[in-house]
Amino acid sequence: MQGCRTAAATRSGFWGRGFPGRTSQRVCRRRDSKAVQSLLKPSDSSKASWWQNPEEVYIRLRVDDSIRGKDIDFELHPTRLRLSAREETLLEGYYDDAGEVDIDGSFWEIEEEDGEKSVLITLLKQTMGHMSFEDLFEMDRVNTTFTNWVYMDYVLKGKDDEGLETSRMLGRVFYGLYGSAMPASTKRFCQLCTGEMGEHSSGELYWYRGTRLHTIIPGDRIEGGDILSGDGSGRLFEDIPKGFKKLEDDVNKIKFTKKGMLGMKDSLFCVGWEPNPDSKVAVIGRVFDDPSMSILGQICEIAGSQTGDPSREIMISDCGVIEEENLETMVAEERQRRILAPVDEDTRDIDMQDDIVGKMDEFSGSFGSSPQTGGFKPIDFGE
What we know:
Low-confidence stretches: 1-37, 342-383
Order of helices and strands: EEEEEEEEEEEEHEEEEEHEHH
Structural class: alpha+beta
Helix content: 10-25%
Strand order of the largest sheet: 13-14-16-15-17-12-11-18
Distance between the termini: 33 Å
């Protein structure tokens, strides 16, 4: 067993660099302990709180005024920690889902402020960044179980040699929504997929059907949902119809930390490829499966640009809500359609045919383990 103890030590500074005029005791121990398969769980009596700065994470636990340094037992491991006082567990669990910690630079100390005694744990971050830790406590964990599902059919718009408009189906993309964590935003997104909100004062329907993607950046994101102006500048819900409430601010309740997350702001939506925890949109769900992500990847290659301006017009030809009992059938039918549907031989856009077919293998499997045709096995998004 290794440990260190500093008695009656006073340090100066702020935000984890010590607190002026406070006496602290420091103990670090490492030993085996029983694994708890959860994030950190404070006891009901500890009145726990936590915060962070770019370099350190702080956890404060209220303790009884009679507690002394010798009563504290602190165990810190690469993935978990445990703190107890007089054999009563005050904090226990795993922290590795939240971020990585430098064990040798982490410690605890007893502090007194405004007549209350607390244990302050300081964890030195392995990865620096102001908001690099998230969901440290079990009670912080957001329920990201899919409760609702929607689909969007994406088509490539163009013109033939005679100037007549053409439309080619690129595929149906399925989205799973976080209805438990984001009930209001999820409901609004579903309403925009069905058109049930009726007509805007401009005459446009509150409906994604017939709108286009206004931003397409390969490897970064796609954006759509501008029902008013089609270029990302429209703010649909400044004039919300009667009977529908404005949404509460859900920004940063769930962060963009995984590929394929679906975000929403006003009526605009986006799907991202790269983590963007500082994004100012509400994350409401995620692309449901690998084939759906493959379609979006193809769209980026076919019509994207580094500036974000689409090189070709991609439109949502249809969209809607899927009942859970119909989800398996619809997903299987779309996979079968993609296997059986031949490339449109009537079109003269040969380079586009090559893009659509050629990019299929490149993006397949890039999002997760693809479910097999003929069987239903949604991706496990727990990673």
